[in-house]
Design goal:
His_PPase_superfam, Rossmann fold, 9 strands, single chain, 9 helices, 46% helix
Length: 234
């Protein structure tokens, strides 16, 4: 089942049957020290508002407990005008909370090679069967959670916040019960972007999945040096 792109506009989202649940999986936004960058906030609120204008009302919001994921779903929820409590679920959490020993190994090796943790994860997936098996176990854990929520919220739409290469791709593969094009699947979701899944609770399978349009890059004001400020005052 290939990824297809879908704009967030009215008419693009079909009506669900009683046994279907629309699961919107959103990847955590860019962050520093686990807090999303200020420029992302307006974009997330706008994305939530676009979903509402397109006829998507969130029945429930669930997220990884990581602050960066929690903030990502909360601002999307604000834009969607969704009421009710947000639920956290460890089954969607990232390495740095659920697999600390693995995270330390990855971070140490990334520092040693002078690459980012994300880049190292890409490399390890292609080099280590042990690491792939760990990711598949994490994917099965998250897939199990989605199966539960898919049954509980059948006929409705839910938003789930999680993480990029350490969770979401492997969750999709486990739900589809196939390796498919797994190396390419690693990079399909941008930060803050949503994957729409139509989960069929009666069969426990994905009927459809679509990539929603990604967030535009946030506006980052240019840094003005003291020299430039002085020149502007002359």
């Amino acid at each position: 089942m290939s990824n297809s792109f879908k704009p967030i506009v009215a008419g693009e989202f079909r009506t669900l049957s009683p046994e279907e649940c629309r699961v919107l999986l959103i990847r955590d936004c860019p962050h520093q020290n686990n807090l999303v960058f200020y420029g992302e906030i307006t974009l997330l609120i706008k994305q939530g508002s676009q979903l509402k204008s397109a006829g998507i009302n969130l029945a429930k919001v669930i997220t990884s407990p990581a602050d960066r994921s929690l903030l990502t779903v909360l601002y999307t929820k604000v834009g969607n005008e969704c009421a009710g409590h947000t639920r956290t679920d460890d089954r969607f959490d990232d390495f740095d909370a659920t697999d600390i020993s693995i995270f330390k190994r990855i971070k140490s090796l990334a520092d040693e090679r002078g690459v980012s943790i994300e880049q190292l994860t890409y490399d390890l997936v292609r080099q280590s069967d042990e690491f792939v098996n760990i990711l598949f176990e994490r994917g099965e854990e998250s897939a199990g959670a989605i199966r539960e929520y898919g049954r509980q919220y059948a006929g409705s739409t839910i938003l789930i916040g999680s993480h990029g290469i350490s969770r979401i791709p492997w969750t999709i593969l486990r739900l589809e019960n196939t390796w498919g094009d797994w190396p390419d699947t690693m990079s399909f979701l941008e930060h803050g972007q949503i994957m729409e899944i139509i989960y069929r609770s009666t069969t426990g399978s994905i009927a459809e999945r679509h990539l929603l349009e990604p967030l535009p890059p946030p506006f980052i004001p240019p840094v003005i040096t003291e020299e430039e400020q002085a020149e502007g005052q002359e």
